[in-house]
Request: fold
Amino acid sequence: HVQLVESGGGSVQPGGSLTLSCAASGFDFSTAWMYWVRQFPGKDIEWVCIIHKDGEIATYRAAVRDRFTVSRDNAKNMLYLQMNSLKPEDTAMYYCATDRNGRTRGQGTQVTVS
Reply:
């Protein structure tokens, strides 16, 4: 079965950086488009970025473009999200997912910027 395990979250000051990681298993990771999604308290999940199966194409929502960078290592079944210039409005639970809506996602990792 699909298993996604996120790590790397934490508390940082505005302007700081974090790198999130996601270990994937139970499916053919190398052929899957992968997503990072996030959820603010009491809000619906929103997509943050998507990366092509080969890692050559990535798309970001406007709010994080030029600050976040998604990458992947298909040999290790790993997905990453480098987050720079973090803002308080980035505070959320972050998940890696196999779909844009986060229906199949991990347990999440909390990012707090304050």
The chain has a mean pLDDT of 97. The longest strand covers residues 18-25. The radius of gyration is 13 Å.
